[in-house]
Please model this.
Amino acid sequence: MPATLRELHNEITEKLSDVVELPRREAELLLIAYLEADQLYFITHQETLIDDNEPRLLEWIERRTRNEPLEYLTNRVSFYSREFYIDEGALIPRPETELLIDEVLKCVNPDESLTVVEVGAGSGIISILLALHLPNARFVAVDISPRALSVARRNIEAFGLSDRIELREGDLLGCVNEKIDLLVSNPPYIAQDASLESNLSYEPQNALFGGTIGDEIIRRLLDEVYVRKIPIFVCEMGYDQRASVQEYLKPFAVQSLEFYKDLASFDRGFCLKANHE
Ligand SMILES: C[S@@+](CC[C@H](N)C(=O)[O-])C[C@H]1O[C@@H](n2cnc3c(N)ncnc32)[C@H](O)[C@@H]1O
Model:
C-alpha cells in the first residue's frame, strides 16, 4: 500500500535509529536520493504518496540498516561541488581531501605544462579536479587496485579528460618512468590495528590501511621524492603523523615543509618542496 512521504520518513527513521547517529536526517537523505529530488521537494511534498514496496527502495533501506554508506547505494558522491560516480571498488571521497586540492593549487602556476603524478587515484577525483584547474598539465594516475581504476576511468571519461589523465595499474611509482614535476597523493594512512566505525568495513581495505604504523606508504613516497628528484610533493596524512613525517625527513634536504590543517583544526597533510641540489 502506498504511504505518504511523511509516513515513509518516519518508518525509515525508526529502522535506522539503532544504526546511525542521525537517523531522521539519514532517512531524509535516502528518500531525497531515491526520489532524485532536493530538500525543497522533500519539505513541500510530505503528503505525496510513494510506493513503499518498490524493490529498489526496499533494497536501499535494507542495505542502509546494515550501515552501508548511502553513496554506495546511490552510486553518487559529491566532491568539490561536482558529482562523481562511486561504487565499492573505490574509497568514498572525503570532504577533507578538498583541502589537498587547494594546497596543490597554491603551489603551482596554473598555466605551466606540468607532469603531475597521483599515487592512489581511487575514484579519480583528485586528478580530475586538478586537471580542471590546471589546463596545461598532464596527469598519470596510479592505483594498485583494478577495481578502483575502473571507477576512476568512468569518472575521467564522464569529465572528458581521458586525453589528459592516463591511468596505470601499479605499486606506487613502479610504473612511472617519466620526469615528475609534482607528486600528489591521498594514500592509505590508517594503522592496521586501528578500530574503525562499522560503515568503513564497506570500503576497500587497501584504501584505508597504510601498514602496521600507518605511515609506511607516506615514507615510501618520501623516499621516491628524493630518489627521483621530484620538486614538489603534496600529501594527505593522519592527524597524528606530523611528528613522524618531520622526523623521517631529518636526513633529507628540504627547501620547505608546510603542514595544513583540516576544518576541525587537525593536521591533515603537508606540502614538501625538496632541495635536490
Ligand atoms: C585513501 S584512498 C584515496 C583514493 C582517492 N584518491 C581519494 O582521495 O578519494 C588510497 C588509494 O590508494 C590505493 N593504493 C593502496 N596502496 C597502493 C600502492 N601501493 N600503490 C598504488 N596505489 C595504492 C588504494 O587502492 C586506494 O585507491
Q: What stands out?
A: Residues 15 and 65 are 7 Å apart (CA to CA). The chain has two domains: 3-67, 89-274. The longest helix spans residues 23-35. The longest strand covers residues 254-261.
